[in-house]
Write a structure and sequence with these properties.
6-stranded antiparallel beta sheet, elongated, 13 strands, 5 helices, alpha+beta
Length: 274
């Protein structure tokens, strides 16, 4: 997990998080795709900015956030929460009490997911007879061009019987959909030694999604503060240096809400009010 990083790079907490999904978790999915959660949350928030934020400026009271190409147009906010990795950000900050150093905690590793429809090749994985594996993991010193291969289940599979039918089909060497994690985009020629196409003479049905998914970890691990400025500028993705996962970001989001609540309570108690 974590983009092929090994035990020499992963500190203890991120190591525990990396195996939690396979040992003690119950995973849930949203019909139509999990990406609907942030998209619908953004729609519900109805932000006033005309485009993606480019600059955060500290003012005498609060902050201004300007969008790219807004030509001086900016929106005023009492509190700002940054919710994307600064290591991969073009966001600029002006007037803060301390300079924000985007590169201080290192780079992010690229992860490319390949969704392949096909049949795992027995001969490649040394299986002469019997069931094929439905999950293939590699070690840090592996020469394979991928990190892992895993059988995928459609979001519409709602019962154990439906999931079992897909597993049984894969074990019978029938075409199914697999997710291949790799550090770069793999060509069809690179995937063909591992997968046979669903139909003889045809190519591999393939969809590729790549993103910078995880920080590059090291020991000791540098950590960034959740507070970029004491006057109300907070950073959700600081938690990714401790361990990067959607669940960790949800914990960080709650932490950010608690920081905002404390900020509000402090100012309600002040003489100038809020």
């Amino acid at each position: 997990n974590y983009g092929g990083q090994g035990c020499a790079q992963l500190h203890a907490l991120v190591g525990f998080v990396s195996i939690a999904g396979g040992l003690a978790s119950r995973c849930f999915g949203v019909v139509g795709g999990n990406d609907q959660v942030p998209r619908k949350a953004l729609e519900a928030a109805a932000p006033k900015l005309p485009g993606p934020a480019a600059i955060v400026r500290k003012r005498a009271a609060g902050f201004e956030v300007a969008a790219a190409g807004a030509e001086g147009e900016a929106e005023h906010f009492d509190v700002v929460i940054v919710a994307h990795p600064l290591e991969r950000s073009t966001l600029r900050f002006e007037g803060l009490a301390a300079e924000v150093e985007p590169q201080r905690c290192g780079a992010y590793r690229r992860c490319v997911a390949h969704f392949v429809r096909g049949v795992l090749r027995r001969e490649t994985f040394g299986v002469s007879k019997g069931a094929l594996p439905v999950e293939i993991l590699t070690t840090e010193d592996s020469s394979a061009p991928f990190y892992s291969i895993g059988l995928q289940f459609p979001i519409t599979a709602a019962t154990r019987a439906e999931v079992r039918a897909i597993v049984d089909s894969a074990l019978r060497c029938e075409p199914q959909t697999y997710k291949v994690f790799a550090p770069r985009v793999l060509s069809e020629d690179e995937l063909l030694p591992y997968f046979a196409p669903p139909r003889v003479g045809e190519g591999l049905p393939l969809e590729v999604v790549g993103w910078y998914a995880y920080p590059e970890y090291r020991v000791p691990q540098p950590l960034r503060s959740f507070v970029l400025d004491e006057d109300g500028l907070y950073y959700l993705n600081a938690i990714e240096q401790a361990a990067s996962a959607m669940e960790m970001c949800m914990i960080s989001a709650r932490n950010a809400v608690n920081l905002v609540r404390q900020w509000v309570d402090d100012r309600r108690g002040a003489k100038e009010g809020f």
